Glutamine--fructose-6-phosphate aminotransferase [isomerizing]
Amino acid sequence: MCGIVGYIGKREAYAVLIKGLERLEYRGYDSAGIALLDKGVFSVYKKKGKVAELKNFIEQQGKKFPPLLYKERGQEVRSGIAHTRWATHGAPSDKNAHPQLSNSGEIAIVHNGIIENYLSIKEMLMKKGYKFKSDTDTEVLANLIEDIKKNAKVSIDEAVRLALLEVVGAYAILVLSKDEPDTIVVAKIGSPAVIGVGDNEFFVASDATPIIEYTDKVIYLEDREMAMIKGGALVIKTIDNETRNPYIQKTKMKIEELEKGGFPHFMLKEIFEQPRSIGDSMRGRINANEGTVKLGGIEKDKEKLLDAKRIIILACGTSFHAGLEAKYFFEELTKVPTVVEYASEFRYRNPVIYENDLVIAISQSGETADTLAAVKLAKEKGATIFGICNVVGSSISRIAHAGLYTHAGPEIGVASTKAFTAQIAVLMLMCLFIASEKKLLNKKKMIAILTELENIPKKVEQAFLAEAAIKKVAKKFKNTENFIYLGRGYGFPLALEGALKLKEISYIHAEGYASGEMKHGPIALVDDNMPVLFIANKGSSYEKIISNMMEVKARNGTIIAIITKGDTRAKKIADYSIEIPETSDIMLAFTASIPLQLLAYHIASLRGCGIDKPRNLAKSVTVE
Ligand code: F6R
C-alpha cells in the first residue's frame, strides 16, 4: 500500500513526480503529496483525495507553481519526493498526507509501510520537546532522523541509517534534507523500492512504472539495504553499514502497457487482454505437438516438485481463488494432496510443515505482506518455496527458491482479472509438468490437453461474444442489494471469485458458495428478490447443478446461469443465461471468468462506481 516516488537530476522534478504518482495511484488513493527541494527551500503540497486533486491544487499556485519557481531560482540539481497514500496510522487528511516534515522543517520523508514501535519513539521525542502535527508514524521517523542528525552531527544518510537501527516494522522510505540538496536517501525493509539509473539522474519508486519512460536500467533494493544518491553518484550499503555492489538490471516493461489504450477503464482493457496474457503465460513453455512442458524457472529444483508428498498453496484474495481452482486439477492429475491456505491465517497458526512439502506462493504483485510473511515462515520451517508472481523482481519472487512468472503484463485495475487467468495457466503448466514427469499422463493424453490449452486464447475470444447478453443482465440487476454465486467442483472457486469481483467494484453484497452447501443455509435467503448466479457449464457436475437450479426455481429465486453454448436444457431453467464455449472441466476457469468479470464491470459501471480504484482498496496490500 502507498506509493512512493523520488527524483534527483536536471529535469523538472515536479513533472516526473506527478506522473509517477499517477502511475502508482493503484497502490493507494486517499491522499497525496509532493515535496520539492530547490535552492535549499522546501515547497510542500499535500491534499486529501486522489492525485488529480493534488495536481489541480498545485497547478493553481500562480507564481508559486513549481516549474516557475525553478526557473526563477535557476536551480541546477532538482530533487523531490512524493507519495500516494492508503491510510494506516491517521485518517486520510491533508495533515496526515505525506511528505511529513521534521519539527524544524529540515527533513522531508515519504514512507510506505508501518513503524510498529512509533509510540515509544514518539514518547521519547516528546520528552525532548518535539511537537507532532499529524497522527502518522512517519512524522515520528522524520523527527527521529532530525534528532540524530542534530545530536550526532552526521550527514543525512548516516542519520537515516542510525534511525533505522532503532525502528521496528516494514518500510520503504525516501528522505530529503534541506542542507544537503544534492542528496536523496532511500531505504527498505518489507516494502518495495526500485531505483532507476539514468544519465546523471536517478529515479526511485515503489515499482518500475514511474521509471520506464526515462530509463530501462533498474536496481531492486533488497531488505535492509539503503542507497545514497549524492552528487550524481549512487552508493548502496546495508543499514548495518556493509557496502553492497549495485546490481543493475534491464526491465522489459513497456510504456504502452501502462496506458488505457482507448478503453474507459484499465479493468476493461485488462479483461479484454486475456487472450494475449494467457497466451504469453504459456508461450515457450509448451509444445502441444510433442506433448511436452518446459519450465525453465523451476528446472533446477524440479526434484523438489516431483518428490513433494503434499503441496501447500499460500495466497490472498483473487490469488487464493486461483490456488483453490488449481487444487482441483493438481489432485486430479498429479494425485498429490494439495491444500490451499489464506496466507493471512497460515502465518498466525503454528503450521505443520514436513520435509517433503512444497509451498507454492501465488501473488500478482509479489508484495502482499501476509503472503510474504507466510512464505518466510514456511521457509524457516524448511519448506521449498515456488513463487508464481506477475511483477518481475518483486519480494516474493526473490525470496522463493524457484518460480515462474505469469506474463500478464502490468495489472493496473485494482480488481484482479488478467492476473487470475494467467495464474491458472501457469499453475496448470506446473501440474501437467508433474503429471507427465511422473508418467501419470501418457503422451496421447498430454498432447490432447496441451492442444486444448493452446486453443484457450481463441475460446476466451469467443467468450467475449456474450458481452451484449451480460450488459442486459447488468442493467436488470444494477440496483440489486444482494447476490448469491453458486458453483460445484471446478465452478466453486469461480463462484467465490465472481462474488468477490462484484462486491469489490460495485459494492453490492455478494456471496459465493459451493452449490451443494446451498441447502445447509444460504437457501434461506432465496426469495423472489434474490438473484442466484449459477456456473452451470456442461461439465462433470452438470446434473447436480441442474438439480440445484430447480431448487432455487421452486423457491421463486431468479436464476442467472453461465451455460455451455448450445445447452438448451439449462437455458430453459434459467431466467437469464450467458453462453461460454465448451471446454474440459480443468479449463473452465479461462472461459467462465470472462462473464463473471464483465458482469461485475458492467454493473459497477452502471452504478457509476470508481472501477479502477474502488473505495478502501489498494492494489498492493503491503500492510498485514
Ligand atoms: C481482488 C484482488 C485482491 C488480490 C489480493 C492479493 O480483485 O485483486 O484480492 O488478489 O490482494 O494480491 P496479490 O495477488 O498481489 O498477492
In short: The first strand starts at residue 3 and ends at 9. The chain has 21 helices and 27 strands. Residues 95 and 347 are 34 Å apart (CA to CA).
